Amino acid sequence: MNSFHTRLGAEVAAALRDRRPVVALESTIVSHGLPRPDNLRVAREIEQAVRAAGAVPATIGMVGGQLVVGLDDAELTRLASVDGVSKLSVRDLAIAAADGADGATTVAATSAVAAAAGIGVFATGGLGGVHREAATTFDESADLGTLARTPIAVVCAGVKSILDVGATLERLETLGVAVVGYRTRRFPGFYLTDAGFDLDWSVDSPEQVADVLAARDAHGVHGGGLIVANPLPADEQLDPALHDRTLAEGLALLERDGVTGKAVTPYLLAHFHSATEGASLAVNVRIILRNADLAARIAVAAAGRAA
Ligand code: PSU
Ligand code: MN
Questions:
Q1: pLDDT recorded at residue 305
Q2: Sequence-separated (6 or more) residues with CB below 8 Å from residue 29
Q3: Which residues does a 6 A CB cutoff place in the pocket of ligand 1?
Q4: Which ligand approaches the C-alpha of residue 87 most closely?
């Protein structure tokens, strides 16, 4: 009988107990964001990047209705490989648990579960946000609203470039989500180094991010999330002309196929991966590995502070 309690992986439980650095990782990127069979290899590489920088990885997902913080390799393999893994946002968690489902957690769900487990740092690729047709579709990722009320630092390469980036930044401001650029004052565009928008704040080191988190906790005023926007170096980004062409095609196909709701993001990412013949996949992988490394260094700096 499923007790519905969240289960911590043994290594994660030990690290949290001893106040050692832990980095949360999401599983939607594995099940829905990257193509098989690369997804499983990449999922393991992300965990390895966290370990190499001195922290314990906690990949979060749902297996047979049980929410797990720190999936083991068999569980990770299952979420990466079987059909019928649901994409779970925060609102889906209880329903999927009661249903005994297999599910992958989005940025929103991963943030909420990680914070509840006492994990303060999370690495992903690019956040969800406001979709381009949002003025008529109202399609805005639950990632934004969740980050407004969840005390976690998310290291990401900005928001996905398939979105309306300017509108997303406005919504983050309205919602009170803090945003800092990592060694930049320009907001990154996921596959692209620069999405074309200025940022008010930048930080230069993991220690500086740890200072921000310590100040937030000491003040007790703002309990929401911090986005650490970590751009790809310009020579590692997806060729901007190829990017713009592929996106225009993808948006037209979306319309043709009538794709809506939570299928939109996976559909567009899959289009990029096939239309660029793997170029976007390689870029996506580099983004995540760099973010995993930085998140781990932030977690190490923050754990040193708490000790
Ligand atoms: N970043 C990636 N690939 C992904 C995602 C993020 O590099 O697949 C996922 C995250 O789980 C994010 C979700 O929360 O896409 C956003 O989906 P939506 O737009 O439906 O909220
Ligand atoms: Mn959506």
A1: 84
A2: 124, 125, 288
A3: 26, 28-29, 32-33, 106-108, 124-126, 128, 141-143, 262, 265, 269, 284
A4: 1
> If one looks up domain 7-304 in CATH, what number appears?
3.40.1790.10
CA–centroid distance, residue 229 to ligand 2 (Å): 21
Rg, the chain, Cα only = 18
Per domain, the residue ranges of the chain are 7-304
Orientation of helix 206-219 relative to helix 279-306, angle to 10°: 60
Taking 3-state DSSP, the helix, strand and coil percentages for the chain, each rounded to the nearest 5, stand at 50, 20, 30
Q: Is the pLDDT of residue 306 over 80?
A: no
Ligand nearest to the CA of 137: 2
**Other CB atoms within 10 A of residue 48 CB:** 13
Query: Cα angle at 146 between 15 and 229, to 5 degrees?
Result: 75
Residue 307 is predicted with a pLDDT of: 58
Q: What percent of the chain has pLDDT over 90?
A: 96
- Given the residues 47, 75, 140, 160, the one annotated as active site: 160
pTM (two decimals):
0.97
Are the beta carbons of 111 and 89 closer than 8 angstroms?
Answer: no
Separation of alpha carbons 234 and 186, rounded Å:
12
Yes or no: say if 26 and 268 are a contact pair by the CB < 8 Å rule.
Answer: no
Give the mean model confidence (pLDDT) for residues 39-47: 98
Cα 226 to Cα 292: distance, rounded to the nearest angstrom = 16
> Which one is catalytic: 26, 47, 75, 140?
26
Q: How far is the CA of 258 from the centre of ligand 2 (A)?
A: 14
- The CA distance from 183 to 160, in Å, is 19
- Ligand 1: residue of 29, 111, 259, 287 to mutate (most ligand atoms within 8 A of CB) is 29
